Amino acid sequence: MDSISQAALGAAVAGLIAGKKCSPKILLAGAALGTLPDLDVLLDYGDPISNMIKHRGFSHSLFVLIPFSTLLAIVWQRFVAKTWSLGQLWLLITAALVTHPILDSFTTYGTQLFWPLNVPPVAISSIFIIDPLYTLPMLIPVLAAFIWRSRASKLCGVGLALSTLYLGWSLIAMGMIKDRVEENVAGTHLEGQPVFIAPTPLNTVLWRVVVLDDDKYWEGLASLKDEDPTIDWMPMVRGDWPFPVKSALLTDFEYFTDGFVRFQQEGVGLTVTDLRLGMAMYQPFKFIVAEQGEDQVWQVVEPKQVDPGPLLPRQIPALWMRLLGWQSIDAMLCNEHDCFRD
After folding, report:
1. Hey, is 231 helix, strand or coil?
2. What is the superkingdom listed in this entry's lineage (predicted)?
3. Cα–Cα distance measured from residue 21 to residue 149, given in angstroms and rounded to the nearest whole number
């Protein structure tokens, strides 16, 4: 999630656990702890694909954060918070740190909760990385806690409860869309194929669906406001890797994306795209991984991230109209170079 959400979450958790000891300093410390795991974004792993798949790695692992919390609690109790019991201080620090990756695991990007174990990132994909309906009900009570200090802990608890309820709603909404997708593909050649479902930006009403189908994939939008349950699928070419063997980096990329990737020739370059993130009209995680020489032979190159460019102005209001159930405008949400290519 975004830094504001994580800071608000850390502050709310710290304030709730602190109880009568809650103060502006505690809230600020919780906010700082809540954003601490994202400092790994400052690390450079050598290339943009590695930077992507290794983000939310060791710094988000429960196997790292819990021992780190223990060490930090011992040091903090000895030199700063001497009036606190070690147990309460450990619980505050651990909760403020660990809730960060747990919240991240509800997004599409995924979180390596169990690093260094060789297991896929946890990516529930029920909430967009920025969602005001999650953040504001928690942020407003936390800010109020700075003013009404006698009720600070209760305010933090209220904010945390409201945001958690919304997170629970996101799972219910996702389940409703999943049932609808299964009904749409039942009895077709898409039945049983890998499916990816995620909310569109800033809401949990309009959802994006991607279904893999050998050399192509099908993308559609489904809103909880739709009167017609039929999903208007858009076929798109997945492309192929032109070499007999994939590099370890590409293998890791496909593992990270659970196979939801697309290869596409753009000029003399071959790009690979994470199909889970963004939409057909805007896919931010696209990388050039090979280039074609004058002899028409492909050569693997150092990965370079492609600038996705700005969203088209007409697509933003179209997205909101689609959220409200206007199914006739699905085509407006596609880039003419990407959609309906078969």
Report:
1. coil
2. Bacteria
3. 10
Residue 251 CA, chain-centre distance (Å), reads: 21
- CA 329-331-333 angle, to 5 degrees, is 85
Opening angle at CA 247, ends 244 and 253, nearest 5: 115
Closest CA to 195 of 222, 155, 157: 222
pTM of the model: 0.90
Find out whether 283 and 308 touch, Cβ atoms under 8 Å.
yes
pLDDT by residue, tens only, the chain of 342 residues: 999 999 999 999 999 999 999 999 999 999 999 999 999 999 999 999 999 999 999 999 999 999 999 999 999 988 887 788 999 999 999 999 999 999 999 999 989 999 999 888 999 999 999 999 999 999 999 999 999 999 999 999 999 999 999 999 999 999 999 999 999 999 999 999 999 999 998 999 999 999 999 889 999 999 999 999 999 898 999 998 888 888 899 999 999 999 999 999 988 899 999 999 987 667 889 999 999 887 778 888 999 999 887 766 566 667 777 777 776 655 555 554 444 433
Q: Residue 236 forms beta bridges with which residues? A: 217
**What is the 3 state secondary structure string of 122-155?**
ECCCCCCCCCHHHHHHHHHHHHHHHHCHHHHHHH
Give the helix ranges, DSSP H, for the chain.
3-18, 24-35, 48-54, 62-79, 86-104, 132-147, 152-185, 248-256, 315-323
The SS3 of residue 301 is strand
Q: What are the tokens at 293?
A: 């020489």
- Helix or strand or coil: residue 310? coil
Burial class (CB in 10 A: 0-12, 13-18, 19+), 152: buried
Question: How far is the C-alpha of 319 from the C-alpha of 316, rounded, in Å?
Answer: 5
Collapsing DSSP to helix, strand or coil, 342 comes out as coil
Residue 264's identity, in one-letter code, is Q
Contact in structure between 223 and 321 (CB atoms under 8 Å): no
Torsion angle of the four alpha carbons 149, 153, 156, 160, in this order, in degrees rounded to the nearest 10: 180
- Widest distance between CA atoms in the chain: 75
